[in-house]
Fold this protein.
Amino acid sequence: MTQLLGVALRGTGSYLPARVVTNDEFTEVLNLDTSDEWIRTRTGIRERRYAGQGETSATLGAAAGRLAIETAGLTPADIDLIVCATVTPDLMCPSTANLIQAELGCGHIPAFDITAACSGFLYALSVGTQFVRTGAARHALVVGAEVLTRILDFTDRNSCILFGDGAGAVVLSATPVINTGVRMIRLYSDGSRQELIQVPSRVTPNPPPGPPQLQRLDYMRLSGREVFRFAVTRMVELIEQAEIDARELGLTGIDALIPHQVNQRIIDAALESSGFPAHKVVVNLSKYGNTSAASVPIALDEALRTGRCKPGDTVLLVAFGGGLTWSSALVTL
Ligand code: UT7
């Protein structure tokens, strides 16, 4: 019988592109009918980062992964699995994880992508955890990397103001101590609500007629108001379930909540309904906007580097997005 192992979060890393885009750029450069005041008060976002020439999900993900491996005190040769969550892969084939493996100079290890939109990192964390827990991998690199600004419709003020580019990563390592690291992961989906967030591609079932080069099928389409309501409801459920899980696992409590960085009003509404203490919530969306699969690992890495979270803390990670998908993880750092 396989002896199950503990799965420790041994290192974290993140990478944000250098270019800062303020809310004013949408009015001053793109002539969009919006304002800094509307964006700040309706979302909490003040600025976000845009990937530059030559930067892709793979280059951002490799930079975040390199830092996570260094922080873990390991080298790329120690990594024996890469799972990358992204909805903005460099290519349809090969996977972004393959490109990261080559960029980092890892060995001939399994490397593949996961698609679960803004829940992608927690889905990838779950896969990495299963490999490490069963002994199939000793050190797994789990990455969330996105260049969402490459698929935005910059004429749609409902969506284009929300998103930014970035990447975050963690190294999961096997440990004989079972009661540490990743304690519980919960994943959910509801494909019947697929139309609320979509990024159609060339392999869409109903491509419009006409030459492909004239079509922009890959723009993100978003029903923001409906997603807002879904996000609040699911975030409340995930927090309440995690509080039960934490008690059943014998944990003394949840020291911090790191939610998907989507909209300050979504987070505030969920805190009000669940009663979860606001001072325990890590929020950085004013600086980066919504970076989809990258948002939770970026916030986790920043929280550790700034001392906002520290080794030994139990942290609740929560995410929700296209699919629809929603997910949570209870992790002792
Ligand atoms: O991670 C998962 C993906 N993320 C999301 O799906 C985002 C979730 N949703 C949201 O964050 C919010 O719903 C939005 C920020 C997208 C919109 O905020 P809202 O408070 O739900 O606004 P709304 O959609 O109810 O629209 C209110 C008004 C509308 O005008 P009318 O119809 O009342 O005249 C919109 O056209 O605000 C207008 N509006 C804007 N006005 C200025 C929408 N976007 C903008 C804008 N600037 N950028």
